[in-house]
């Protein structure tokens, strides 16, 4: 059987860290009987770079295909090294590209980015948004959705909603958590009993968000449970009735898919790849970036319109089902077969 190596920041085993898609796929393919190497779990970037390099060299005879998780920023140093090693060691290299900041990164560092992308035997993106961005640089990208372990997420059709809002992302400027509080404050002017759960790890702004919550008089209405493991995520999602996403930058957020899987109507900013993921008015509601007034108004419409809420709830679950392991696994396996037979060709389009 084909030996796989999933390479990137595999930090989900550490308390308070979210499992990234490469880690999730590595576990699923291990469960499917594939020999899998997973690297690296070190939190320090420098230690992670050393570990993944040593692992790729030491275990190179076990690896036919390297599936390299590609982000932007400082992590791209590790991606450069891992792809170079894969090329030198005779591995097939699949670049699994993530993150709404990739287009900006390639615009800022085109020579560096293109050097790494040209090493790929295939490139995979979870959304048309990233595929379009890579196409503008001359690369083709196969779209394979992010995967969900769908049975873990209990579906409840939401029709008659209550004003219980759920926000789940890291407390980081890119995810604009302050907007969620401004939305809640507007909703509470009409429905004073509205509440909000804001969950996720702190990436530098949680204290500021807590202070804003106090300044807006929302202390009794907002719960900050911190990072949620799977059981806690399902519990909070089941208790809520509307999921809000306030990001400035995004691609194909798993958190939105998780909300859809549970039947939570999603109201989100229309940034990055989200308009490719959600059909406005059918599988979610889209508003402009940082427009807390529009988001609050749509929340109030959902609360007053059971038919709209039920349609988005049901359609969201159907959307999430496209990301089930049963749907996603065959797409990866076809790609593995194509790459191993070399029929797929290089990721760069030289025609």
Detailed description of the structure:
The protein is α/β, with parallel strands linked by helices and 351 residues long. It folds into two domains: 4-147 and 324-341, Glycogen Phosphorylase B (Rossmann fold, 3-Layer(aba) Sandwich), CATH 3.40.50; 150-321, Rossmann fold (3-Layer(aba) Sandwich), CATH 3.40.50. It has helices at residues 21-31, 45-58, 75-88, 102-108, 110-117, 128-135, 177-190, 206-215, 230-239, 254-261, 274-277, 292-304, 306-321, 325-341, and strands spanning 4-7, 36-39, 65-70, 92-97, 122-125, 142-143, 164-168, 195-199, 222-226, 242-245, 266-269, 285-287. A six-stranded parallel β-sheet has the order 2-1-3-4-5-6, sandwiched between helices. The protein has a six-stranded parallel β-sheet with strand order 9-8-7-10-11-12, with helices on both faces. The longest helix is centred in the C-terminal third of the chain and has 17 residues, at 325-341. The relative contact order is 0.13. Mean pLDDT is 93; it is low at 344-351.
Number of strands: 12
Outline: globular
The name of the CATH topology of the largest domain is: Rossmann fold
Please provide the ordered H/E string of secondary-structure elements: EHEHEHEHHEHEEHEHEHEHEHEHHH
Mean pLDDT: 93
- Main beta-sheet strand count, sense and barrel state: 6 strands, parallel
Q: Which CATH class of the largest domain is shown?
A: Alpha Beta
- Number of DSSP helical runs: 14
CATH superfamily of the largest domain, please?
Glycogen Phosphorylase B
Q: Can you tell me the residue ranges where pLDDT is under 50 for at least 5 consecutive residues?
A: 344-351
- How does the helix and strand content classify structurally? alpha/beta
| Distance from first to last alpha carbon | 33 Å
Major β-sheet strand ordering: 2-1-3-4-5-6
Q: How helix-rich are the residues, as a percent range?
A: 40-55%
CATH architecture verdict of the largest domain: 3-Layer(aba) Sandwich
β-strand percent reads 5-15%
